[in-house]
Structure formats: C-alpha cells, structure tokens
Amino acid sequence: MNTRSPSLALSTKDRLIRSAATLFRTRGYHGVGLNDLLADAKAPKGSLYHHFPNGKSDLALAAATWASDEMLRLIAVSFADAPTFKSGATTLCHKLAKLFDLSGKWDGCPIAATLFEGPDNADFRACAQRLYDGWIAEVHDHADRFGLAPDIADHQARHLFVLIQGGWLLARARRSSDVLRALPDLIAEA
Amino acid sequence: MNTRSPSLALSTKDRLIRSAATLFRTRGYHGVGLNDLLADAKAPKGSLYHHFPNGKSDLALAAATWASDEMLRLIAVSFADAPTFKSGATTLCHKLAKLFDLSGKWDGCPIAATLFEGPDNADFRACAQRLYDGWIAEVHDHADRFGLAPDIADHQARHLFVLIQGGWLLARARRSSDVLRALPDLIAEA
DNA sequence: GCAGAGCTGGACCGGACGGTCCAGTCACAC
DNA sequence: GTGTGACTGGACCGTCCGGTCCAGCTCTGC
C-alpha cells in the first residue's frame, strides 16, 4: 500500500482523486490498475463508477486537475513574499526539491505521468495543455507584478517552466533533488 | 499499424528494437501490449523470447539504449561543423523540432517514456541515469572542444539537457515544435 | 546428404485488467 | 414509519495481458 494514502476523514470522492494523483504520478496511467487504486483509496468499485461515470479516464482528468491546482498554490506561496522574481523562482525550486525528497525521489510531474501516458485521447491532450498553460500564466502574473516588461515576463515564465520540467526529469533519473535546487543558477539575471 | 514500422530488410531483432523504441516513445511502456508490438515488428512471439529471454523488460532496455545512441549521433552531427557552442546547440534544437514534426507531434523522450513508466525496477532506473549522463557527457565534450572553462562547460551541458527535456514536454502538450526552436534563446551567452 | 544450431510461428495458459450491475445501507424529508 | 435518492460493497464478466512451450523450418559446416 501507498504510504501516502489519503485519510479516511476525506470523502470517498476526494480519496479517489488523491490516491489517483499520487499513484499515477509515480507509475503512470497505465501502470496503475483499478484494484491498486481502489485499495489505496479504501473505496469499492461501485463508488468509483458512481462519482466518475467514465471510470478510470474521468478520474485521471480529475486527479490531474487537482494536482495542477496544488502546483498553482505552490507557485503562489513561493512568489507571495518574495522580494524579487528570481527569489520567488528560487523558493519554488527549493519547495519542489523538498517535496521530491519526501515523495521517495521518484515522483514525476503529475500531469505528464497521468495524461501523456494515458489513452491517445483528445480530451487528455487538451487538458494537459490547459493545465500547463495555467502554470505558465500564474508565473507570468508574478513576473508582471515585479514590473518585468511583458516580453521579458513571457520569456522568464516559459524559461522557468521548461527548467522545472527538465530538472524534474533529471532529478528523477539521478534520484537526487540537487538538480532542482541548482536550477535557479541557470536563469539569467532579469 | 504504426506508419513508421521498421523495414523487413532488417533482422527480426532489429525490427523488434525499433518498433519497441517507437511505440514506447509515444504510448509509454505499459501502454504498449506485446501483441501490438509484435504486429508492428512483424515478428512472432517466439522470436521475441528467443532474442530477449526476459521478454518485454529486456526489450525495453535494448530499445532505450538504441534510442539513446541515435540521440548521441544527433548531438554529434549537430555540433560537428558548428562554429560555436551556441550554434551547435541551436542546430540540435532545430533538428529535434524537425523530428518532432515528422513524428506526428506527440513523441516524447524515448528514455523517459520507456524506462520511467516501466516497472519499478532498479535496472530501469540505473539504465535511465546512465543513458542521460551519456547525453550530458557528449554535450560536455563539445563544450570542451570550443574551449569553454570546465565549470562553464558543465553548466552549459546541464542547462541544454534540462531545456531540451522541458521543451520537449511543452512541445508535446502544445503539439507545436515552436517551443523547441525557441529554446536556444533561453541559453545565456557563454 | 546430413546433423545440429539458430530462429520462427503460433497455440495455449493463468491471471489481471477495466467495466457492469444491483442489492444493500444510510441520512433525511415528510 | 415510510419513501427517496445518494452512495457503498462486491460478485461477476469478457477481454487482453505477458509469458510458456514446442514443433518445425531454415541455414550452415562438413
């Protein structure tokens, strides 16, 4: 059983979403069976199909969206009290590194693992693009707030996104969060 | 059937490796069934287990290694005639963008898709790390060749790797190779 | 021509997969 | 108390999974 199984205090639907997000993130959409998932969420099959009529794929979309919202919150708190854009970006990378260590150094990006390895499905692709663009937009807003010129803000937001995704991958391969912590050094001074 | 199915002129073993590399890259390890794979490679099940006694997992390791060697060649030709490091990096990004377009704008990194989404297996993880470090080392050698100081070369090689991986992901989500072509602009002048 | 290794073709297997279905339970309105 | 709708528990289903096995077909060396 997953050691990060959601608490029974949560509703069945929330437990399903959280279990799905956690399991898909580490093993990918096709790597997680319905039985594993149901056991982790401590929910029977009937509940899954009650809350998510289309079964596994509906649940995956919900799990990816939930995980994306968590990421948006992480971005928001990282930049909230930062004196500069770069300082906020650094905080974000360090927070991600910490989460990566806590997760057992194997979690990947929840959206990529859930939606890219899923069925060859237009809904999945559209959802992934929408969620990723949400992350970039969130960073962009903070860049604006620090007074960066629009083209610079655009550049920085995209750069940070690409660095984090690439760094996440390398961190996973090396099973070390050091890569994530070193990312801010790669950003040019704004 | 995969439109990029390997030619029958190749040996059965090579056809298996190429089919596996192509299919895993787009659908992930667990997303490809043995029957799909065998149909694409036009090989019977007996041949697979003759050439790869451990079946799917052996084949995945071989496919990832083959795909990684292709990438090393791509890096080598991109930097071979380049006047500067940055020019070589730009050529590499453009070549990747072209391949991405040819693939149907959905291919991911062959190593991540094959080994990260595979079984929770120490061999897979070790192989992924080894292959990625091979890519970084190859870029590092070229950086050396252009006379970059060791710490700068290290920095640049890691940066290029992270950019390409992150860019690849965003290109996939947006189904556009523009992201890959824009990557060189994100590298600081060395 | 013959022996034997290397390789192929495909039937077959047990189990796990995602999905369906419905009786049972519960909280709550009336 | 009774009716109602939301939710749960789990038996059950057909399909496809990865994997096994072996008969038979080459190809090669002699």
From TrEMBL, chains A, B:
Coiled coil: none annotated. It comes from the Bacteria. Keywords: DNA-binding, Transcription, Transcription regulation. The keyword DNA-binding applies. Transmembrane segments: none annotated. Residues 10-70 form the HTH tetR-type domain. Pfam families: TetR_C_13_2, TetR_N. GO terms for molecular function: DNA binding. The keyword Coiled coil does not apply. This is TetR/AcrR family transcriptional regulator. PANTHER family: HTH-TYPE TRANSCRIPTIONAL REGULATOR LMRA, TRANSCRIPTIONAL REGULATORY PROTEIN. Residues 33-52 bind DNA.
